[in-house]
Design brief:
The chain folds into two domains: 180 residues, NAD(P)-binding Rossmann-like Domain (Rossmann fold, 3-Layer(aba) Sandwich); 106 residues, no CATH class. By secondary structure, the protein is α/β, with parallel strands linked by helices.
Length: 338
């Protein structure tokens, strides 16, 4: 069985690539060659920019695939390009969408694949919805063999799941916890959030590859572990052998102060999300997420602490946290003095 991954070296796709090769897939990775250290032994790298359609068409002109998966398509124009490139090249095209596409606010806390797609708060999610709709139109009209996958918050060895962070990633939050500085937790921290380790996600994804029953279907892949943001931050602190100093701030306040947080918070992480995973378990009966968050995040923390290149300082985000916390404390003092 032959597969082509567009990307293949990211947080989600690296573990899928490893497992696919282990399971005997003949795997090709099409990317710009920037993360070759993450390419598993046995995979073949096709070095190209997927946005150069002519170059990619030449590279794969003599190859046909059982599966093609695009991990880096975010907008309808990119999906339209994939349809042109791969319509006659594969038996299955897997599109990586997002569970953030599900309606916000939710009408019911437990999400199934039939939960409506609508997110007025986040353009990223609306673009994913538009990509899904375009692919399903081509499935119905032209029998384009699409399978849509909706990941939720998936993490691995190089990242730690947090509710908010700066442009440089989660290290600054970890650093604040290590130094005993308070970290911002949106809202009261009691909403439920579902986190999935990338090795678990890979098991379900590889089970979908070449699975004819998934053609024309949309499927989310998550763990069954839903925990509060308060507990998530506590567990991160425990993995660092310290106590996390949590500082709760209203989500509306955060968004008004920093407007670009709206999509990731009001459109995603500020909502309670619990997933019904019966569909993926029916399609891939052996699928079971087995990495608890306290286990997975300890692996992530240990890896990050052992790799200084991942410890990227983010002064702008650190100052943002300090300013928000200071403003909230001053407001409280003002009210106490009335």
């Amino acid at each position: 069985m032959k597969a082509l991954f567009i990307g293949g070296t990211g947080t989600i796709s690296t573990e899928i690539s490893k497992l696919a090769v282990l399971k005997g897939w003949q795997l090709y990775l099409l990317n710009r060659g920037n993360n070759l250290t993450r390419v598993p032994e046995g995979a073949t790298v096709l070095t190209a920019d997927i946005n150069n359609e002519v170059e990619v068409a030449k590279l794969i002109c003599d190859i046909e695939f059982d599966v093609i998966a695009d991990f880096i398509a975010f907008e309808p124009s990119q999906v339209q390009r994939d349809i042109r490139l791969f319509s006659k090249k594969t038996k299955q095209f897997i599109f990586i969408s997002s569970a953030s596409a599900y309606q916000k606010p939710l009408a019911f806390y437990k999400i199934t694949e039939s939960t409506p797609l609508a997110n007025p708060y986040w353009k990223y999610s609306r673009d994913k919805i538009a990509c899904e709709e375009l692919l399903m139109q081509h499935y119905r009209a032209n029998n384009f063999p699409v399978t849509i996958i909706r990941p939720s918050h998936t993490y691995g060895e190089g990242s730690v799941p947090v509710a908010i962070h700066g442009e440089k990633g989660s290290w600054q939050v970890i650093d604040r916890i290590i130094k005993g500085k308070p970290v911002i937790v949106p809202g009261d921290g009691n909403s439920l959030w579902t986190i999935t380790h990338n090795t678990d996600f890979a098991k379900a994804f590889v089970g979908i590859m070449g699975n004819n029953a998934t053609i024309g279907e949309a499927i989310h892949i998550t763990s069954d572990e839903s925990i509060t943001w308060n507990k998530i931050y506590d567990i991160i602190g425990e993995a660092l052998n310290t106590k996390t100093q949590k500082f709760h701030v209203a989500t509306d306040f955060l968004v008004k102060y920093k407007a670009d947080l709206e999509g990731g918070l009001i459109g995603d992480k500020a909502n309670t999300v619990v997933f019904d995973n019966s569909k993926i378990k029916r399609l891939v009966p052996e699928y079971l997420a087995t990495t608890r968050f306290d286990q997975g995040v300890r692996l992530s923390i240990n890896y990050i602490l052992a790799h200084p290149e991942l410890q990227i300082e983010d002064k702008e985000f650190d100052i943002f946290c300090d300013n928000v916390i200071k403003a909230q404390e001053q407001a409280l003092k003002y009210l106490e003095n009335l």
